[in-house]
Amino acid sequence: KSTISSLISSSEEYKKWRADVYRRDGWTCQTCGLRGHGKDIEAHHILPMRELLKKVHIKGASIDDKYLLAMAIPKMFDISNGITLCKNCHILTYKGRRK
Questions:
Q1: What pLDDT score does 37 carry?
Q2: What is the pLDDT of residue 97?
Q3: Gap between the Cα atoms of 27 and 17, Å rounded
Q4: Residue spans of beta strands (DSSP E) within 1-99
Q5: CB-based burial of residue 79 (10 Å sphere; 0-12 exposed, 13-18 middle, 19+ buried)?
């Protein structure tokens, strides 16, 4: 999954999604209000990418097939499934999940 995640994160579709989320949110963290640019802010999937990738966990499928399936998941690049967060607020979204 992490390989698929990194492939997705380096794709042009992901870069466009991230830029669209930043633009919609005015390059501002939607939690604390910090205004920043690429190094200060991050685009966060509201429905996490790891949850979306569960849909392509097909035993025996090649990484290329899983990647193609993942890229076709509608919520993957839907800007309504994204929010701009600063790095600190983004880290806080994961604190409750790591147990």
A1: 78
A2: 55
A3: 13
A4: 41-45, 82-86
A5: middle
Burial class (CB in 10 A: 0-12, 13-18, 19+), 10: exposed
Our CA angle for 82, 46, 1, nearest 5°, is 100
Quote the distance between the C-alpha of residue 9 and its chain's center: 8
How far is the C-alpha of 20 from the C-alpha of 27, rounded, in Å? 10
- Give CA–CA dist 8/68, Å, rounded: 10
**Which residue is listed with tokens 């147990």?**
99
Task: Report pTM.
Answer: 0.86
Residue 58: its pLDDT value, please? 80
Q: Which of 49, 42, 60 is nearest to 1 (CA)?
A: 49
